[in-house]
Write a structure and sequence with these properties.
alpha/beta, Carbamate kinase, two-stranded antiparallel ribbon, binds uridine 5'-triphosphate, single chain
Length: about 220
């Protein structure tokens, strides 16, 4: 039995919304749960969240308000997932770490979107992993894993199979939280994972069947610990 926090990037299932992929994730999560693993799923808000962030910006709303708007969008996607999971879920999207822990203690699948302004859903994934004492955080992104440099810009970028959290911090550009920022995984999340000695797997979220391999203890994408 593995305790897994599955963080699915909005850039994967919600940019644009990919119904087939969402259905696949729900089926796989059911399968992994039936195999006896304990699961929390954290969803981001994708392009719709960014559209709402822009509307909020144009209305001259401050960054924390923009973040709150994006959080609401991520929770809508989380609710879709929760509804599709049926009895396996808690029937309600968790909006605090206490609610996540309560749902988890009932042996249900925890589903969450954003938590609070100032960070991304990667940090929510790391905080949930810390709180639930998880073994593993997996993040489905739009790349095969972590590369030496951005593979969309550099053809000589090389995929890394394994690295430490310190290596990862060096590979990723250091950046402060900005509303709507896109990163493979954010720095706050890395710090939380590192201090809790948690394992992180970054994999291609467009190949969700990789989740089964990760739950089985196999190394896919890039493994960071
Ligand atoms: P994410 O950047 O986590 O969404 O949150 P995503 O679509 O999954 O992104 P990718 O696929 O990893 O790139 C979107 C925005 O929501 C706000 C932030 O503004 C963030 O940039 N947010 C999210 C919060 O303010 N707090 C949260 O806890 C989560």
């Amino acid at each position: 039995m593995t305790r897994i926090v599955i963080r699915i990037g909005g850039s994967v299932i919600a940019s644009p919304v990919n119904i087939d992929l969402m259905n696949k994730y729900v089926q796989l999560i059911k399968q992994i749960k039936i195999q006896g693993h304990e699961i929390a799923v954290i969803l981001g808000g994708g392009t719709l969240a960014r559209e709402f962030i822009n509307i909020a910006k144009n209305l001259n709303l401050e960054p924390t308000a923009q973040d709150r708007i994006a959080i609401s969008v991520s929770r809508l996607y989380a609710q879709l997932f929760m509804e599709k999971l049926g009895d396996l879920g808690c029937g309600k999207v968790a909006t605090t770490l206490d609610e996540a822990a309560e749902c988890f203690s009932q042996k249900k699948v925890v589903v969450m979107g954003g938590l609070k302004p100032g960070h991304t859903t990667d940090t929510v994934g790391a905080l949930v992993a810390e709180r639930l004492n998880a073994d593993l955080l997996v993040k489905g992104t739009n790349q095969d894993g972590v590369y030496t440099k951005d593979p969309r810009k550099f053809s000589d970028a090389v995929k890394l199979d394994k690295l430490t959290f310190d290596d990862l911090t060096h590979v990723l550009e250091h950046s402060e939280h900005k509303v709507g920022i896109h990163q493979i995984i954010d720095h706050m999340a890395i710090d939380i994972l590192k201090r809790n000695h948690l394992k992180l797997i970054v994999f291609n979220g467009f190949k969700p069947e990789n989740l089964l391999l990760a739950a089985d203890g196999q190394n896919i994408g890039t493994v960071i610990r």
